[in-house]
Amino acid sequence: MLTEMLRNNITPTTETYSMLIDMYCKDGKVGEARDIFEYMTGIGLVPNIITYTALLDEYCLRGEMDEAEKLMDLIVENGCKPNVVTYNSLINGYCKSKRIDKALCLLQEMHFNRLTPSVITYNILIDALCKDSQLKRAHQFLKEMEAHGLKPDVVTLNSLLDGMCKNAQIDEAIATMKEMGNTGVVPNIVTYSIVMDSLCEANRLREAVDIFSFLTTTGVHDVRAYTIMIKGFCKEGLLAKANELLKNMEDNGFFPDEWTFNTIIRWFIDGKDVM
């Protein structure tokens, strides 16, 4: 595309190059994006924060944090001010690389630079802390975001629910789920699936069935929800129920995926044929 523009004597601007870099990054072609970045700087064009952030985000998504750090240094050296989106990309990259302390340092840096963290900023950090079983710290950040006038969304609360469930706090998770409606946050299929899966794992199948029945009556369910319940029935040795639900799943237009088949195969290997 760039070659064609130059061939037709169309002079690309910084904005043009930024869009091309963003397009290549979103397509996973970071090499091509970097080539365009080097070309534009080589001909004297000055990248803006949109240009830098597009490339930075791709480095972070790929876990190439050394490259991301070098680019961040270049941003500062060139007098370009990182924005909230830039910091969110870096914080996400560090969290995915299990370097949560580094991500938390960036949050403090945002405050120092008088940048207001967004709901996305806090969602990234809360999710990482929950996955690292740092629930107390995650709840502290929930309070912090609320103190800054930011309203938690379903992503925020799903992360907390998942953390609670994985740390044997199922009753607390159920109470939080029930309270969501009062806070204006509507639970989604992910919310219910997190709780159903944990109930099945804790041998509380009856409660999971109640939630699934509610989803069925409201028309809110998916392959994952069905598979969770199939696994729950298999776990309790209710193989006829599991088979019945599998057929019901297909009748309702939901077709088994890899996880569904793996669940069935696992119980087949264990001598518990559900077919």
Explain what this protein looks like in three dimensions:
By secondary structure, this protein is mostly helical. The chain has a domain at 188-275: Serine Threonine Protein Phosphatase 5, Tetratricopeptide repeat. Helix content is 72%, strand content 0%. The chain contains 16 helices and no strands. Helix 13 packs antiparallel against helix 14. The model has no long low-confidence stretch (mean pLDDT 91).
Write the layout of secondary structure elements.
Elements: H1 2-7, H2 14-26, H3 30-42, H4 49-61, H5 65-77, H6 84-96, H7 100-112, H8 119-131, H9 135-147, H10 154-166, H11 170-180, H12 189-201, H13 205-218, H14 223-235, H15 239-251, H16 258-269
Q: Indicate the overall shape.
A: globular
Oligomer: single chain
Number of strands: 0
At the fold tier of CATH, the topology name of the domain at 188-275 is: Serine Threonine Protein Phosphatase 5, Tetratricopeptide repeat
Identify the CATH class of the domain at 188-275: Mainly Alpha
What percent strand? under 5%
Number of H- or I-type helical stretches? 16
Sum this structure up briefly:
The protein is mainly α.
Features:
mainly alpha, Serine Threonine Protein Phosphatase 5, Tetratricopeptide repeat, 275 residues
